[in-house]
Write the structure tokens for this entry.
Amino acid sequence: MKKIILISVLFSIFMSYAHAQSQDSIFFTKTTHDYGIIEQGGDGFCEFSFTNKGEKPLILSNVKASCGCTVPEWPREPIMPGESNVIKVKYNTNIIGKFAKTIQVYSNAVNSHVILTIVGQVEKKE
């Protein structure tokens, strides 16, 4: 009887692991973008590339920045398995000084909450 219970438990663990491996996941090529030093009013755009590594369509339900100085733009349509896309981010480079901001990505993936980060320094235009 103990062998049957042990085998059942091991089988359940194996099936849970196999199921977790087949669930949708989102993979970012990078999660941090370093602007370095930017001149005031300079280009504050960057992109975060990602791929749907799952077997079902990936849906980004929300993408939000930590403050109003950072504006994300993301695809609203489902991303099919194996396909890639980008989240575009614009930082307001009229704000002088060092910055570190986060962008939270929510999706139907198994890793449903991913945090992206932008860092840099804006220097006064001469």
Q: What stands out?
A: The chain has one domain: 24-123. Helices lie at 2-22. Strands lie at 26-28, 32-39, 45-52, 60-65, 70-73, 84-91, 97-107, 113-123.
